[in-house]
Structures are given as C-alpha cells and as structure tokens.
C-alpha cells in the first residue's frame, strides 16, 4: 500500500512540477483516505458525471468495504480490489449514495460476477480531469476523463478476447433496480435506480439514465441478469435458481435488480477502445443528446484537454505565489474541491427533473444540485460569491426553483430530492449572505418570502421541526426533540439573523426587529455556571445530570447534533458580543474559547466549531491566537496526501475553510459580510473578480509570508493602514490591494 | 364454491340460450378446473392480450396457489381470492408463465400489497370476449373485453376514494423485473420481464411492454416499490428495510423486481372508469400504437361488440345443428379453444421480436407464436388446415420465419423464444401435413430444407438430441437419454415419415426412400413377448427389469416421456399395418389396443395415446369399438362445466380432439391426409370452406344422431356409398355432403 502511494508521488511529482498552471497543482488523491470521501475520478467543473475507480466492494477491501460498514465513497485509497468505474458519484459526503453505472474492462472469458472479475491495480495516476491505472489481472490500461455530463474512458487492451462490462447491479447506493438494453454493437442504454441517501426517504428514490457509446463495434454483445433466489417448492424446479444468466445477442430491455450489459471483442493486436457514457436525470434521450452535444466526434485527448482548460480557467481565478509546492497543492486541490458540488443537474437542453415528482422542467440557467447546506452555508457559498459570483447567482436561482417546485427552500437537496439531512434552515442564510455581498440578480422578494415562510409556518414545516416551542419558549427542549434541541435553536437563530439582515437591507423594519429579537434566543440556553450551552427541559429546567463532553465523535445526545456543548457554544457568530457579555466579558470568553482547543474538544472534522479559530479576533489583543490556531490547523489537517483532509470534505466545506484560511481571510459569520483576518500562507494572492458583479477587476493580497513569518504585524488596505482584524466584503472587493506585514513573534503567554 | 358455480349456471343459461349464434354457445369456464388451465378472461381471436381474473395468489387459494405447487394458469375456478386481472396469459399450458401486468381496482385508502388488497368476488360471468364480476370487498363491478393487442376493462366504482393498481411485481411467471412510469393522469407505461417457461432457459427471458390509458384523469397518481430486504449492518440503518414505499406524483421510471403504479380518484357519485392496456413485445411505442390503432376512441361496448362479431364470424365457419345444448356448448367452446393459440406476436405495424436476440423485425403476414407443437401437430393444425387454411398458412410462414431467424424450426416456441419443451421434431410434421392438404402458398423448398436439416445434422442439433444413435441403431437407448428413449424414437419416426411424404410429393425419390426407411425403425423396440414397446440398452439388449406400467401419471422413466409403454406403443399411426404385423396380426393388435382401455392405461389427458380410439378403424369389422370409445370419452371428459376438459387443454389440442370427434372425422395420422371416421354428435355439421384453398364452398355432414343412434350403419359421400372408415382430405373437401346413417346396435361381444 505504501509502495503504491510512493509510486504515485513519484509520478505525480514528475508530471506536476514541470509546469505551474493551477490545474497542475491539484492532487485528486487528497481526501481519498481518512474518510475524506473525495475520489480521484475525473470530473468537469461542477459536472454531473465523474468516472471514479470503484474499490469498495469485495472481501479484499474489508474493513473499508461498502457492505460491512457505513461507507460513503466509491473509492478508498487504502483499498486494493477494483470492480469498475462508477459514473455518477458524490464527493465528500457522509452518506452512501450514487456510485452507479459501473464500467469494467476485462479480458478472456466473460465473467459478470464482480467478486470474480475484480482486479488489483497499479500505476495509479490522477490529475484534474484525468485518471489512469493498470488493471493487474488483465494488463489493461485504463484512462478516464469527463465533460459535464459525459464520462469518457480509454481502455488499452492486450490482444485476445476482451470485454467491457456495464454493471447496473453493483453500486454504492442502497437502492436497487435497473433496466438496460444493447441498442447496437456500439451503444448501450439504460436506467439505474438510486436514492435513500442516509438510509432515508426511500419514497424519493429516482432514476439516472445513461447511454454508453463505444468507439469500436463489439464482435458480440449481450446482457446478464442475476435473478432473485427462490425458496420453497419452486426452487426445486429451477436448476438456475439464483444464478446469473448470460443473454447473448439480446436486443431488448432487461429489467431487474441485478443486471448488466457487455460488449465483447477479439483483438488481433493490442487495441484501444474509447467509451463515452452520457448521463441524464430526465431521460435516455437526453442522456444521448448530452453525449452527442458534449463530445461529438472528439477524441479522448481533445476532451481531456478541454476539461483541463475549463478547470484551469476557473482555478486561475485565484493565483497564488510563494509558499511551498505543497502549499500550492493543498490550496488548488481545496479550491478544486469547492468547484465539484453543487453540480449541474440539468441536461444540455436545459431539462431537469422537478423536485420529488420528477416531471420534466426546463431552465435557462444552470440548475445546480447537491446542496449540503448545513455544511456549505458557513463558508463555501461565501467563497463562491467572492470568486465565482455568476455561479453563486445560479445557485441561488436553483434554490428558488426548488422553492417554486416544492414549496420550500432546500435543506440538503440531492438530484431533485430533498433528503432533509441534518438540522436547521440554512438556505435563507446563504440567500441573505449572497444578496448582502452584492449579488442581487435574483428575485429577492420571492426569496425573502420563502425564508419567512420557513421561519413562521407552524404546521407541516419540513425545514424547522420544533418551531412552535422555538417561537413560544425561544428554544427547543428535550421534549421537542430527542436529538439536538440546542443545535436546532442555534441554527434557527442564525437563520433568523439572516432574515433580519436581509429585511434591514430591503427596508422591512418591523421584520428586522422581529427576527433580530428571535436571533438571540439561544442566550437562555447558556448555563453561566459552566459558560457552556445546555439543553433545557419542557418546564424550563436544565437537563440534569449533564455532561458537556457527551456528543463528541458524532455520539447521539439530547442537546447537540454531531457535536457537544464545547463544539456548539461559540456557534453564535452573529452574536459574539452578546455571548461574551453573557460569559462575563472578554477574558472569560477567551478563556473558554481557548479551553475548547486546550481540552481537545475542538473538532476540525465537522462544521459547528469550524469558525472558532477566528473568534479570538473579536477580542482586541487576542488576534494572534487566531493566527496561530489557524496555521496549526492548516498544518495538521490539510496535507498533500490521501489523508490530507480532516474528515468528510462535506461537499467542499472543509476545503473552502482551507482556501480562505490560506488567503488570510475568513467569512466568520454567515449573513454578515465581514471577513475575519489571519496571516496568509502565500506571498501573493491575486483574486480575479467578476466585473459583472464587482467594480474592480482584481484583488491582490501580498505578504512576506514564510514558515517563520506567521503573525500579523500590520495590514494595509488600498495602501492605507487597516486597524481592524475584520474587513467588510465591499471594502475587500474594492480594495485592489491588501498588504500584510508578517513577523515571527510568538503568541504571548496569557 | 358449489354455490358460485350454480349461480353461474343460472346466469349463463339465461343469457346464453335466448340466442343461437355460435358465439353464444361458448362457455369460457370450461377447462378452468381439473388442470384444464384455460381461463375465462376475454380474448380476441388469436389475440396477444387477454384479461384474465387472477386468483392463484395468496393463502386463501391454497392448495391451488401458484407458489405452493406447480400451477400453470392465472385462474382456477375453485379459488376465491382475486388479486387482479392479468393482461398476457397462456391458455391450456402445463408450465407457469406470463400472467403479468395485473390491474386491480380498489376503494378507500391506497393499499399495494396484493395479500391485503385482494378480494373475494361474486356474480361471475363470462362470454366470448367478455368477463365480469363484482369484487365483494369493494362493491366494484368489473367488466372486461379485448382487441387483439389491447385489454379493455370497465370498472364501476361506488362513490368515494378509488384506486386502480397496475401491479408489476405479482405474476404467474417465474421471472421478475419491471419498469413503470406514470406518463400523465390518464396514462401509465412500462415493461415487465417474463420467461423461463417450464423453469428452463432463463437466459431467454424477455420483456413485455405496455401502455395503460384511463378514461378519467386521476386526481392523484404514483408508483410503488418493494425493495430487496437487506441483511447485515445496513439493515440496521434502514427503518424502511423491505417495506413497500409509495412515491406520490412520481413522473419518472421506477425499476425493480416488485413495483407498480396507481391512479387514484375521489368520486362524488358512482362512476365508471374504462381502462385500456395495449401490449407489445417490441416496445412501449408499439404498445401505445397498438392501443391507439385498435381502440381509438371506441367505447367498451363497441369494442366488445366487435370482438364478439369477429369471434362469431370465425366460430360460424362450422355450424352445427341437432345435439343437445350442452353438445353445442362443448363443441363451440372447444372450437373457441383452438382459436386462442397459436396467437399473434406482431404489433399492429407488423413489428415483432426476432427469435432469442429480440432485434426488431417486420412481417407482412401475421407472425404467430405459442407453438406447442408436440401437442398440436396431432390434430389442431389439421383442424386449422380444414377450416381456417389462411391462418394455417400464416402459421407455417411463421415457422419459416423462426427458421430464418434461429436456424431451426420451432419445437415449443413462445413469444420469440424457443423453450425446447418436450421431445421430438414436430414442426416438419405440421409443414408436411399442411402442404399435403393442399395449402401450398409458402416456400416449401425452404421448409423441406429446414426439415432435412433437423433430421440429419448431428452436431448442435437442438431439435433431435440423440440423433446419432437414432441414425446408427435406429433408436435412442437408455444410454442416449435418461428420459424417453422410446418416445423420442417414435417422434423422430413420425417426423421422418412426414419428410418422406413431402419428399414423395416434391419428387425427391431418394429422400422418400431414405426417410421412409428411417420412419419405421421403432419396430426394433417392440418386445413381441409382451406386444409393447420397450427401451433398449446401448448394447441392443432390452432394459431389464421392465414394468410397462411405469410412467403413467407423468412419472419420469427411461423409455417414455409423460407416459408408459401402453400409452406409446400404438403411437405409430403412420405404420399401423406394420405394427399389426409385428404383433401377430389383426386380432392380437385389437386385443392389445382394447387392453389399453380395459386395463385403465388409456390417458385422455395427454397426447401420445390421443389417436388410439380411432385405431380400431384399421381392422375391418372392429370400427364400432372406435365409435363407442370416442363417444364414451366425449361423454366422460368433455362437459359443460369448469372441469369439462380431461386435463391441460394443451393450447387447444384436447379441444381439437373434441371438435373433430364430434363432427365424426379425425386426422388419425399426422402427415397423412386420411381422416378416420366415427359417428358424429350432430344431425348436421356445415363446414364453410375457404374458396382460396378449396374448390367447394362448404361441406355438409348430416346424420340421424341421437343419444341412442351412436353407431354407423352406413355412410354416403357426395351421395354415394362410402365403404371405408377413412376418408381422404381431398375427397372430404370436395364431397359437398357426407351423410351418416346411424343406428343403436350395440358393439358385438368379441
């Protein structure tokens, strides 16, 4: 295993550092271990399709095997047994889903059992938009790239019998069911059921359609089916009970839970076959159109070049200079991760499925999907607003389409299903934050109405369970919910703060007051005895006995979701001053905040405390704690290696934290346009701004950063001294230049 | 149960005998008990679709429940628990297959588990092209009719909530897998996998496509899916593990093994909904076109009227007068049963699936399917040649299409799959028989080539396993096969006889000699010690010990398929004289033949001995044994009641036996154009001949038949005395009149 990694480093290094385009600094293996749940498969920017090596099935891959444990990625770097390449995949999520439409090249006799045809692999290599390896068992070289909606693979077969399998039985998803048809010796079409994300809402399972085209006509083709194993008397009559069957030359649909199709060749000489798989969530016809429109007759190499060009254009929106090579790899890989999700849902022709019922609708703009908003509202969308405001605008428009279609803003939307994963009402926070940053080309009144609806509607409200108690008591209680009464209260507070801020901007004064008042109701849950949040019971009494540590490591508990009191108490960034006052002032606040880190309660791997490192900035004179903490976290958790993410990337949220932190700014409080400032990692960061949204073409952040110079001595903005450790978004985008003077001075002891 | 039957008799009688059109004499319940495996569902003549009540699922129906035993029919008259109406069904077969695309109307809340939504039923009524009942649980009146490719149902709902379920999980077939999509509030489309007839050849399973249209738009609709039940750790995370899920308003495909779709209504007043289900074996598009072209905007009543008119036109090709009402019911129901299979495979536009691979082909004529030739070569096709020669011609052309597509003539073809059920090489027998009767409008040279191919090709010959031994030794041995060495030898003999006869007609003299010689090789298997056939071992010795009774009641045995020595010894109708000589002359022959009946070895329920009753005609002076035996068998086994068939109808073969026998003629030796003569049941039988094939417009058979006049005193043909108890086909069709003088005289004692 170690060998493989070393080999990869050598290859990667050789290739990578001969050039210095941003695209060349991306290491797609970062996050493929340590539950980062990214995968190294090629994907176009915000693509619907990726081509991920699938190595999580089969006993060889235990303990990181998909059926033996909760595993939410099609690829794990430590694993060794590959059973195909999946064509729709999620990156950086915490629940198993997608990982279907598996293609696998093999040689010799046809074998359709993935446990038998699977292979170890070597010479693994990944770049932006590119992946390759060699399948040891078959001596087949595999290369893959992708357009937005098409996965493109090139298989280099040795001479002799060869097969390309499209396996629709195997998948990471918990759903089953597929249909497949060989259309001709060069085309296969089909449907695969997916859904039940997080083992939830099975009634919203949905189909993904595909068309696969092959550059060489198959000499033979067919389909296979592994039927249900019968029991009882019928089983006695079935010689074939439960066995896979091969249906040679079959030209009609085969439907069922465990099916596939194959193309078969006999090569006189070593031969390359290119395979393109177009995907759609609307129809097979659209999948075919996607394939044709996006790849036409273009070759693998041409498609790869185009994919990398698009990636490079977007990654180049931020140029960094200085720092180590690993810093650049870490930075651009993180930026790359923020440009995967949300991703494109609509087809080339604009069609996409309506929420839940999946009627076909059409959009002019990009309809984005995979809104893991409990994660991304904290920083990813702020990064998009700054660097890719056109994309962020379309994401807001997509949220409003979701509202139009379903009556509700998204919480955790996935391919036109609302998975209702996690807690809170995060969409409105993103909307307000975006609008306040000056991205206003969407129907803000509709958006505002949607936000107020989820904030106020007591009955049948899927976004804010427990709202009645929240409104009446100011908080959810241990009776309202058995999971996260305090967390939900805090989330609702933040959402209400966002509504208030947008209301203020829109001139809705009474709403501003009403929601501002609602936004600080968490205060009743601060137990001043311990200066930590604490659940309250229905009668207003504290939950007792109470252990604030309970809830770490995703342990289920009454007060907090995926965390404990330590990890949540400071998650009121919209009311830091209020919290500070409650805690008894600046010193108790700083002490308690420092305790989180000193007592090992800080969790870099999850979102609630993700802004904590920046909160020292709120106390004049304590800012260097931020600088040191952020630098240490970057060094500890974000590395140029497969385990180089702290845990689930959470559809780019962890990566966005790194991108901001390495640039020296962080959007510390969602729906508040202030960035907290810390020491940048690079000597020069150039952010190319979008003139359609911002008055300046670029922002240049300079510093004398080095491994020693980690602390801020002074900052100038537009050439003038900047005395605050915060900077507002408008000031930032108009600044043209921000210059950091850094020094080595250590953090003074308290 | 008895009550229900009595009720039906009353209803049927009242309706039926007020008119006297042939169509009114058909009782579709005949054969729905006693394993007749017919069903009372409406079907157009040779229709692709029927609408059969489906009452073979659920513990209420044990012991005649589909999963608790071998059961090959969607409907059993004794059963009480109905779970829908299946839209593709086989009639009179011995293996479970089809019985899918189940529709079920219900009221109240949506329930998709057939064990819960199933209902008892009453007021059951069936006529040609029509079925109705009342679902007791819901007080819903159901009526059904059909065109060739469309099932049409009318549901009379009470006021209140109502549902129409399309269940694609449940079915008689052993196959699973389906896809379904609600296209609009008035249309559902889908695919269902079927196949593995007789639990064999699962690799040739195939899809049946459908489109369902509803006369009233649904107020709500959706799909359901019952997923696989997971085991292991994943099961712990699935609150919904194994549970059916309802997907409301869902507008895309759902695929899987146990799925369905529903339309939901709320009726203010009692309301009728008409549902049309178009079917195709090619595509959903074709299913839709079939539906539109065949039913257009026509109402249920209009469609029913047209179906009955077509049936009546064809049933009227034979008019019978005299006899009891039950005689007429038995006759026309039997004739009706012979016009169900073979049935139409091609779509309205002529498209149909190619054998095995299922590529789409197109035909000008009707492409027939369901060729249960081991059964039907004995009499059904002879009946078609006589009365419906245009249909028989198309059946031969269909066999040649099958040959073109697969390289082999059919054995037991089913919806473009060759099930290879039963033994022998029967297609050529039918081809020769048809040609010899003067139906010559097909490519006889191609057909002849196909026949010789299966007779001569030693390797990879799917039609004649054991051919090498057959050619070398003259017979298959107990080493050649463990099942039916003697039977197969006899079947190959008959096929070779058919080739010889056709060769003779085509002027192929050497082939005539060669195959004539081959056709009597069974003679080596007659053990003269017992005057019965007996298996031989590889070394030419007799199988010992040997019990000729072994094999009755479908018991597996070395020598015979579905029978024993008694039931097979006389199945050499092409060489009766030869057999007689071997046995020692006329008397030993008659004695042994009579023994079959006297010792209880005759099996009316299966084909091998089906011609035995007519073999007495070969011995001058013994013909009245034929007359008496046939009359007794008709009385014993063919009755106007659900158990009024001797067993499986075998796609009309048993019924064809009855039709011929009741007319007083029987095609005793396949590929020989002689009919054996017996006493007719009716005073007058008028067969309307097809002028495109025959020189006369009709043949009128008269007699003084009565319950007493059962024996032939004399016969005149075209007004002249006919001294033989056989009549050749050409003489028959040119006769214009055949007049029987019958008398009461008892059979003389031997």
Quick tags:
750 residues; GH92 mannosidase fold; nine-stranded antiparallel beta sheet; six-stranded mixed beta sheet
Written account of the structure:
- Chains A, B: Pfam families: Glyco_hydro_92, Glyco_hydro_92N.
- Chains A, B: Residues 286-743 form the Glycosyl hydrolase family domain.
- Chains A, B: InterPro entries: 6-hairpin_glycosidase_sf, GH-type_carb-bd, GH92_a_mannosidase_put, GH92_N, Glyco_hydro_92, PNGase.
- The structure is a homodimer of 750-residue chains.
- The two termini of chain A are 45 Å apart.
- In chain A, helix 9 packs across helix 10.
- The longest helix of chain A is centred in the middle third of the chain and has 22 residues, at 485-506.
- In chain A, 29% of the residues lie in helices and 22% in strands.
- The first copy, chain A, is an alpha+beta fold.
- The first copy, chain A, has 2 domains: 2-313, Beta-galactosidase, Chain A, domain 5 (Distorted Sandwich); 316-743, 2-Layer Sandwich (GH92 mannosidase fold).
- Mean pLDDT of chain A is 94; it is low at 1-18.
- In chain A, strands 6-7-8-9-18-13-12-11-16 form a 9-stranded antiparallel β-sheet. Chain A has a 6-stranded mixed β-sheet with strand order 19-31-32-36-33-34. A 5-stranded antiparallel β-sheet of chain A has the order 5-10-17-14-15, with no helix packed on it.
- At the A-B interface, strand 12, helix 3, strand 15 and strand 16 of A face strand 12, helix 3, strand 15 and strand 16 of B.
């Amino acid at each position: 295993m170690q060998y493989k990694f070393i080999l990869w480093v050598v290859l990667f290094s050789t290739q990578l550092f001969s050039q210095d385009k941003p695209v060349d600094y991306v290491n797609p293996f970062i996050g493929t271990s340590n539950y980062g749940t990214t995968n190294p498969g090629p994907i176009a920017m915000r693509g619907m399709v990726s081509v991920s090596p699938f190595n999580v099935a089969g006993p060889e891959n235990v303990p990181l095997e998909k059926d033996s444990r909760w595993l939410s990625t099609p690829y794990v770097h430590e694993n060794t047994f590959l059973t195909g390449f999946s064509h729709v995949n999620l990156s950086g999520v915490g629940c198993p889903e997608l990982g279907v439409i598996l293609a696998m090249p093999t040689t010799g006799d046809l074998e359709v059992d993935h446990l038998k045809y699977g292979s170890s692999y070597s010479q693994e290599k990944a770049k932006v938009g590119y992946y390759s390896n060699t399948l040891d068992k078959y001596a087949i070289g595999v290369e893959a790239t992708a357009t937005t909606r098409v996965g493109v693979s090139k298989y280099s077969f040795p001479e002799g019998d060869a097969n390309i399998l499209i396996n629709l039985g195997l998948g990471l998803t918990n759903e089953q069911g597929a249909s497949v048809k060989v259309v001709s010796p060069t085309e296969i079409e089909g449907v695969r059921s997916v859904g039940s994300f997080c083992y939830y809402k099975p009634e919203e399972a949905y189909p993904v359609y595909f068309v696969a085209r092959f550059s060489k006509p198959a000499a033979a083709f067919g389909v296979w089916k592994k039927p249900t194993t019968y029991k009882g008397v019928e089983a006695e009559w079935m010689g074939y009970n439960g066995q896979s069957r091969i249906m040679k030359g079959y030209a009609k649909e085969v439907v069922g839970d465990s099916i596939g199709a194959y193309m078969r060749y006999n090569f006189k000489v070593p031969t390359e076959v290119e395979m393109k798989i177009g995907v759609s969530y609307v129809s097979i016809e659209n999948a075919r159109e996607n394939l044709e429109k996006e790849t036409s007759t273009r070759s693998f190499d041409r498609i790869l070049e185009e994919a990398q060009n698009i990636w490079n254009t977007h990654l180049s929106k931020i140029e960094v200079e200085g720092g180590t090579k690993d810093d650049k790899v870490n930075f651009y890989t993180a930026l790359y991760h923020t440009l995967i999700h949300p991703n494109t849902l609509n087809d080339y022709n604009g069609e996409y499925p309506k929420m839940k019922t999946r009627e076909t609708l059409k959009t002019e703009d990009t309809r984005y999907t995979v809104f893991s908003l409990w994660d991304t509202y904290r920083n990813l969308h702020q990064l998009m607003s700054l660097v890719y405001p056109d994309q962020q605008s379309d994401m807001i428009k997509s949220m409003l389409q979701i509202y139009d279609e379903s009556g509700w803003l998204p919480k955790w939307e996935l391919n036109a299903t609302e998975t209702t994963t996690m807690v809170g009402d995060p969409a409105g926070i993103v909307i307000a934050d975006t609008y306040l940053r000056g991205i206003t080309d969407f129907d803000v009144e509709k958006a505002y109405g949607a936000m107020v609806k989820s904030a106020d509607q007591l009955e049948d409200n899927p976004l804010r369970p427990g709202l009645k108690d929240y409104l009446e008591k100011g908080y959810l209680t241990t009776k309202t919910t058995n999971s996260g009464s305090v967390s939900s209260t805090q989330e609702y507070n933040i959402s209400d703060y966002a509504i208030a801020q947008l209301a203020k901007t829109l001139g809705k004064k009474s709403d501003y007051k009403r929601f501002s008042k609602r936004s600080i109701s968490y205060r009743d849950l601060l137990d001043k005895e311990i200066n930590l949040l604490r659940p309250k019971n229905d009668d207003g009494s504290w939950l007792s006995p109470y252990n604030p540590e309970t809830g770490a490591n995703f342990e289920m508990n009454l007060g907090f979701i995926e965390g404990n009191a330590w990890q949540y108490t400071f998650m009121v960034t919209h009311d830091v001053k209020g919290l500070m006052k409650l805690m008894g002032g600046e010193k108790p606040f700083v002490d308690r905040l420092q305790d989180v880190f000193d007592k090992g309660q800080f969790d870099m791997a999850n979102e609630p405390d993700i802004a904590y490192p920046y909160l020292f900035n709120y106390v004049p004179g304590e800012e260097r704690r931020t600088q040191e903490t952020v630098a240490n976290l970057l060094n500890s958790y974000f590395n140029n290696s497969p385990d180089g993410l702290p845990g689930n990337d959470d559809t780019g949220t962890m990566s966005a934290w790194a991108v901001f932190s390495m640039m020296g700014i962080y959007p510390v409080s969602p729906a508040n346009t202030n960035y907290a400032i810390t020491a940048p990692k690079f000597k020069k960061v150039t952010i190319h701004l979008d003139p359609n949204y911002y008055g300046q073409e670029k922002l240049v952040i300079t510093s004398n950063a080095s491994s020693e110079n980690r602390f801020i001595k002074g900052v100038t903005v537009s050439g003038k001294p900047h005395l605050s450790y915060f900077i507002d978004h408008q000031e930032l985008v108009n600044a043209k230049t921000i210059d950091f003077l850094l020094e080595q001075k250590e953090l003074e002891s308290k």
